[in-house]
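Input structure tokens:
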């Protein structure tokens, strides 16, 4: 399988040509899904005892299958949280694969982990956490949130051994991401949701909620999760007052900045995150707003040792890694995964190549595009802005439209291969939601999308 033959050379050329063409193309074809039966009818069974040949398989991917996907980096993809990995990061993703490095332990991965840690050092510096803080790259925000919350839960058990057999309870707001509830389920923990009708969670609201708990529940409370940029609206909780309260009450504060974390690098909005420097743990997704390819999340801890206590795996065949000579930073010790890809390497290479200023500029552009779009919405008599643009999210209404109208409009633009913009809900009303990430999105793109709402 490993011997170089002519087939392999040809396949390599095909793959490299495809890759270079794809990353040079700023407006890749906006594909759409097909039913599985339909795809099978076109390409046939691809796994056979003899193999169908690399050239053939690649052709099926290039000509059929990739066209049944939506390129998340298309400049008119404003749905969900889009992405816009840099070319440098994508190329280095190939290098990461080609280098076959095991990313769990320093003994095997030292040089690669060094790269990841360089990138992590910059991420940590954006948070303002103390020198002792550090983190590790994960598969995404969900895994980062789980890793942080398990660490918090273990620390709570350590601090309150009398309650160690109780179900743990975490508190968050209605603006929090679905993964928080989902990971609480994985941990078999309960969730107390504070209704943030004020749009963001404040220290006062948190204080009321905590003081209203009965004693048993207060003792079960192991963490508060605040959000640094809600996924739906880009709203940042009042981290300062929330952090002050958590500090006073000795409750673990986790700040989920999976989407918004990139904006920590943007001077124009950095003050909105004040208080984050008091967090016990933070999630940031480089695959969202730091231009990394999928998948790459990050979890950062104020006290890294607590993460190690929670996550370090033990086993006869792993003991060697704890040995002198293998000493160094072992990423496996700080999150839920053992064998791991060096997910931070593409981010490292791209940061090293471009410098952090380029990142600041690209993130500021996303914020600016949201401001520009909001102004255009305000001037349009058919449209109504629901709230000021926040980070890179804009929520607005097409006057007179029902939920079905928004849905039909989404499909129409998508089927035409023009844009992917999806509706959302804000305060019980259907709205259009724009989320900007890609700095190559133009004002003309915004104008053309708004025109489709007439
Ligand atoms: C996207 C997101 C997540 C989940 O991250 P994944 O990388 O999709 O696992 C968690 N929290 C927030 C605030 C998010 O925006």
């Amino acid at each position: 399988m490993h011997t170089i033959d002519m087939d392999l050379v040809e396949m390599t050329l095909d793959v490299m040509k495809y890759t270079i063409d794809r990353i040079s193309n700023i407006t890749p074809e906006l594909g759409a899904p097909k039913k599985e039966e339909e795809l099978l009818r076109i390409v046939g069974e691809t796994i056979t005892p003899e193999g169908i040949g690399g050239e053939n398989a690649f052709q099926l991917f290039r000509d059929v299958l990739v066209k049944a996907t939506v390129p998340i980096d298309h400049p008119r993809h404003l749905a969900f949280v889009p992405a816009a990995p840099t070319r440098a990061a994508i190329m280095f993703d190939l290098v990461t694969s080609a280098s076959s490095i095991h990313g769990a332990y320093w003994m095997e991965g030292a040089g690669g982990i060094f790269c990841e840690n360089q990138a992590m050092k910059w991420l940590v510096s954006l948070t303002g956490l103390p020198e002792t803080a550090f983190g590790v790259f994960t598969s995404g925000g969900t895994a980062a949130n789980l890793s942080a919350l398990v660490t918090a839960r273990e620390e709570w058990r350590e601090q309150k051994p009398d309650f160690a057999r109780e179900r743990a309870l975490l508190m968050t707001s209605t603006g929090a991401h679905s993964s928080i509830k989902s990971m609480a389920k994985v941990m078999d923990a309960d969730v107390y949701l504070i209704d943030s009708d004020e749009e963001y969670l404040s220290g006062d609201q948190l204080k009321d909620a905590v003081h209203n708990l009965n004693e048993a529940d207060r003792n079960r409370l192991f963490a508060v999760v605040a959000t640094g940029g809600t996924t739906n609206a880009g709203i940042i909780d009042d981290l300062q007052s929330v952090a002050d309260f958590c500090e006073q009450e000795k409750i673990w504060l986790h700040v989920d900045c999976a989407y918004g974390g990139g904006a920590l690098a943007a001077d124009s909005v950095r003050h909105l995150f004040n208080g984050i420097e008091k967090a016990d743990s933070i999630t940031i997704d480089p695959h969202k707003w730091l231009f990394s390819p999928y998948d790459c999340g990050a979890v950062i801890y104020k006290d890294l040792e607590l993460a190690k206590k929670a996550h370090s795996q033990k086993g006869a065949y792993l003991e060697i890694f704890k040995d002198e000579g293998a000493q160094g930073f072992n990423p496996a010790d700080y999150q839920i995964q053992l064998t791991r890809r060096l997910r931070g390497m593409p981010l490292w290479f791209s940061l090293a190549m471009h410098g952090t200023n380029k990142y600041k500029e690209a993130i500021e552009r996303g914020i600016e595009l949201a401001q520009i779009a909001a102004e255009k919405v305000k001037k349009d008599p058919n449209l109504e802005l629901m709230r000021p643009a926040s980070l890179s999210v804009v929520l607005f209404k097409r006057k007179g439209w029902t939920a079905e109208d928004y849905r039909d409009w989404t499909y129409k633009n998508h089927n035409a291969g023009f844009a992917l913009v999806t509706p959302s809900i804000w305060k019980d009303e259907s709205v259009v939601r724009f989320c900007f990430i890609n700095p190559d999105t133009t004002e003309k793109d915004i104008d053309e999308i708004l025109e489709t709402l007439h």
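The longest strand covers residues 221-227. The mean pLDDT is 95.
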